[in-house]
Amino acid sequence: MRLTDTIRRAGRSLRQAKARTLLTSLAIGVGAFTITLALAAGEGGRQYAGEIISSNTDVRELFVQPKQDNMTDPTKPREFVEGPSMTFGGGFSQQMLSTKDIKTLESIENVTEVVPIYNASALYVTREGQKKFQAGLEPHNSSMRSEVLAGTTDHVGNNQVILPSAFADVLGLPDGEAAIGKTVQVVMENAVTGQRKTYTLQVSAVVKSSVISAIGSTTLQVSRDTVANMYSFAMAGTPMADAYVGAGVRAKDEASVEGVKKAIEDKGFLAQTAEDLMGFLFQFINVLMGILIGFGALAVLTSVFGIINTQYISVLERTQQIGLMKALGMRRRDVGRLFKFEAAWIGFLGGALGSGAALLAGTLANPWISDTLSLGESRLLIFQPWSFAVIIGGLMFVAVVSGILPSRKAAKLDPIEALRTE
Question: Are strands 97-98 and 93-95 parallel, antiparallel or unpaired?
């Protein structure tokens, strides 16, 4: 019997029991639905993480921190480490970079710039006649890509500021280029004396607030000298006056990044490249994706028993038919192949229905998810064509394996005994 004839006959046999075939296919389709969405979420998560990192980092930059307390055994006292630190409850402290550490980093070969990370926040920012709003402060980094709504972000002077669009709105600034050159007042407060100092800054640019930018809707970008001056004023008289949570170190070129990283680690610091940050995020995403795929695989495993049961019932119901086919000369191999193809059809239908439903649900849900999570134009569920082929093919294989025992039972039936069966 030709292969094409066997495939068509398998399809006709399943159409004779439409309800049973559909229910069995839907059972395996639940697993296909879950696995398809898991793969789409994993791809979307990886692309979104890549967008965040590429938008906020330069491949030449490294994030550097001092080595922290050893927390492997919380029952033992931790050794005192000389240098600035931020102390928390329970005796835990986070080591900070000092001015001496910054100079050490600057002295490393192929390092072109070291920018301390200032943990600076304004008491408030305002304009004349406007309300007061809390704000964070960051030194401007030209490598961070932002959508510029007005002005330019190429350079920020010591008396200038780049505002997120959310701040421009609440401070009553005019739209577009009319906002450029307007002034805002940034007020800092000393942590010890309570003395306040006002910095009047001109708006040099307005950028669109974006969830994939490190500069959020409540963070102002100013020059490095300005944020250093503000930080020094706010922390004067405290142990944090010359201490930084970390620093951004820029290598001369991409080829020298790994060498700079090794030199930094040899000096006793922790260093992470953009690739390291992406690796950590991708590992986290892969773990979540693996959990979802595990649930899908469990649904597929459950459906295996449904396929076996369906095939056994089909063999019992068609015993006389099988006997007649064998009496007319159909070989045992062809009988077994017929039932395996029936199982493959069930796997195909289940995979197609589940994957198709996942594609439809994901396409409809993507805008809602992006809006709910404030992802902007980014999409959390990204479907790739190869995943549909792999899922459907894999489920067909699982279905065929599930149908081996029923097909063997059908192939071994004695034609005379089968024809006598009522």
Answer: unpaired
d(CA 105, CA 212): 29
Contacts of 418 (CB under 8 A, 6+ apart): 319, 320, 322, 323, 324, 326
Within 270-414, residue ranges assigned H as helices are 274-317, 319-327, 332-372, 385-402, 404-412
Q: Name the 3-class secondary structure at 9.
A: helix
- For the chain, list residues with pLDDT below 50: 71-72, 88-89, 212-215
Residue 360 token pair? 């439809």
DSSP string, 238-303: STTTTEES-EEEEESSGGGHHHHHHHHHHTTEEEEEHHHHHHHHHHHHHHHHHHHHHHHHHHHHHH
Distance of alpha carbon 201 from alpha carbon 283, whole angstroms = 42
Cβ neighbours, 10 Å, residue 290: 12
What is the pLDDT at residue 33? Answer: 93
In whole angstroms, what is the distance from residue 112 CA to residue 249 CA?
8
Closest CA to 96 of 115, 114, 76, 81: 81
- In sequence order, the β-bridge partners of residue 219 are 136
Task: Report the alpha-carbon distance of residue 165 to residue 149 in Å, rounded.
Answer: 8
Is the pTM here over 0.70, yes or no? no
pLDDT digits 0-9 by tens, 37-52: 999 988 888 888 777 7
Tokens for 177?
A: 């280029």
- Give the per-residue pLDDT at 49: 76
Confidence (pLDDT) at 125: 94
Res 212: pLDDT: 46
Res 182: pLDDT: 92
3-state secondary structure of 194: coil
CA distance 44 to 220: 29
Residue 214's pLDDT is what? 47
Q: Using CA atoms, how far apart are residues 111 and 238, in angstroms rounded to an integer?
A: 30
Distant-in-sequence, close-in-space partners of 291: CB < 8 Å, separation ≥ 6: none
Residue 187, pLDDT score: 95
415 to 221, 317, 323, 350, 420: CA distances (angstroms): 85, 15, 4, 33, 9
The distance of Cα 380 from the centroid of its chain, to the nearest Å, equals: 8
What local confidence, expressed as pLDDT, does residue 149 receive?
Answer: 87
